[in-house]
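Data card: per-record layout.
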Amino acid sequence: MTTITIPKILFGQQKQKLVAVPATAYKEFLTWQKEQSQPRQFKTFTPTAAEKRDLVRARRDYEKGNYITFDELKRELGLGDSKQGS
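The structure for this 86-residue chain is written out next.
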């Protein structure tokens, strides 16, 4: 078995931990770290004035209870659950 001596000077005054990993695992880690550090590009949504008005109206209607559930909508449209009909 090979013995490796690591000089204490590499760690400085702080009690740091040493982790030994295979070179391939370390290369994978560096690749992953590089990918994580790059800024991600996201598409953003900027609503128009009309969409903002519609959203305000929709929130107001919701607060008043002026809405139907998804199940109610399906019933009104005649789109029942296919499992229930069997």
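Known properties of this structure: The radius of gyration is 30 Å. The chain has a mean pLDDT of 84.

See the next section for split statistics.
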